Amino acid sequence: xxxxxxxxxxxxxxxxxxxxxxxxxxxxxxxxxxxxxxxxxxxxxxxxxxxxxxxxxxxxxxxxxxxxxxxxxxxxxxxxxxxxxxxxxxxxxxxxxxxxxxxxxxxxxxxxxxxxxxxxxxxxxxxxxxxxxxxxxxxxxxxxxxxxxxxxxxxxxxxxxx
Length: 162
Ligand SMILES: CC(C)(COP(=O)(O)OP(=O)(O)OC[C@H]1O[C@@H](n2cnc3c(N)ncnc32)[C@H](O)[C@@H]1OP(=O)(O)O)[C@@H](O)C(=O)NCCC(=O)NCCS
What we know:
alpha+beta
């Protein structure tokens, strides 16, 4: 990983997804078998970090919403009293074993936050789905807060990111 990695939209025709190994088979399988369908059906976007031709990491981003009551009081006070609040969801994030521990997970997170705050379509928070406690700890390390009734779903207010 001599040069900084490029982060770009997944190009299923040009990029080899078969070698990707994050150590979490469900996340590897998603990239191999499901991501292109989700992109085609406009269910989610998928962005990859590239080391040359090799996929070093990826994340998905989709439109979402979150119940206002799940958010903490101080944030709720700043929002209109709609039942649901607009959000972006980073549904998946994974780094290949060969690239872990070098800041790539954090860089992908920052990249997703940048896309979320630059979007023409506004949203109040970035949501993430943590697959287990370790993943939740990774997000908490980056300032994410768990929803009141769903400890594996965490959020970051986009206002504070901006
Ligand atoms: C979680 C994951 C994305 C982290 O990627 P990574 O490239 O190894 O992480 P980074 O090197 O960018 O770490 C950035 C920071 O997070 C911290 N961190 C990494 N994993 C952590 C964890 N599980 N808990 C708490 N902090 C963690 C690092 O210490 C580092 O801290 P620093 O910036 O203060 O030095 C990666 O381990 C992975 O792909 N895991 C399997 C899939 C997964 O759990 N995905 C999460 C969403 S479901």
